[in-house]
Amino acid sequence: METNDQLKEIVRQKYSEIALQDKDVNASSCCGATGCSTEIYNIMSDDYTEMEGYNADADLGLGCGLPTQFAKIRKGDVVIDLGSGAGNDCFIARAETGETGKVIGIDFTPAMINKARANAEKLGFNNVEFRQGDIEHMPVTANIADVIVSNCVLNLVPDKDAVIRDIYRVLKPGGHFSISDVVLVGNLPDALRKDAEMYAGCVAGAIQKNVYLSLIKSNGFTNITVQKEKVIVVPDDILNKYLGTAELESFKAGSTGIFSVTVYAEKPSDAACCPPGCC
């Protein structure tokens, strides 16, 4: 059984490789983990190409939703993107917040930070920056962000409660987040959960949908809303690598499901600070 630190290192190494891959390789895989399906081109991600601010060089095809589409970003907002990768969501957020706002991307993979900074420099954006750090302990001060977005990243972090707690710390009172992620309904077979490649590919690191929403509520957020939800259909050529015939039939016949959800929640406007001891 890997420790949290070991799991994070698996993800760091995998996403360092992904930063150097072509988008077509990433998009035909399980969130960029490997070229693991011959049945479909794109397992997880939605199409960004029509959104204002879209930059092809920054799109690695790793998302599982369009959180910036639902994030209610206004001109002048301070926006933070968790797990910012090559910067795609940051550049789309910048189109919403404009020149008077500020966008901060946070990623713990040096290769991704370097790629994102190079993309920002090419675009000439002086109000978009990228910081290396863990999203459980963001390298930003408390009560700074109007909006936080993230796309298919929290499921990769072992301590999701710590991430949600730090989101609360960083948001201004009255601020909100819109986060796309992978969640489960029912029990995923052990053979899928134990495989590190699938972990870095967004599925085995996911938690139950009801637990995910409960973590958000228990950390003090209000007006929790599932803005979008879709079933992620895992093709047989992937499942067959991990499940026997009987287990595959049971999986398909049961109530188990893998979903992409985009969740919105607000930090109460009367929250003067985060819980005692963290500000």
The CATH architecture name reads: 3-Layer(aba) Sandwich
Average the pLDDT over all residues and give the rounded result.
81
How many structural units, i.e. domains? Answer: 1
Span between termini: 34 Å
Strand content: 15-25%
Radius of gyration: 18 Å
Summarize the main sheet: 8 strands, mixed
**So what's the CATH class?**
Alpha Beta
CATH topology: Rossmann fold
Total strands = 8
* Number of helical elements: 11
| Uncertain parts | 32-43
Inertia-based shape: globular
Secondary structure class reads alpha/beta
Q: How does this structure look, described?
A:
By secondary structure, this protein is an alpha/beta fold. It has a single domain, classed as Vaccinia Virus protein VP39 (Rossmann fold). Helix content is 33%, strand content 22%. The chain contains 11 helices and 8 strands. Strands 1, 2, 3, 4, 5, 6, 7 and 8 form an 8-stranded mixed sheet that branches. β2, α5 and β3 form a beta-alpha-beta unit. The chain is globular, with a radius of gyration of 18 Å. About 4% of the residues have low confidence. One of its GO terms (molecular function) is arsenite methyltransferase activity. It comes from Mucilaginibacter achroorhodeus.
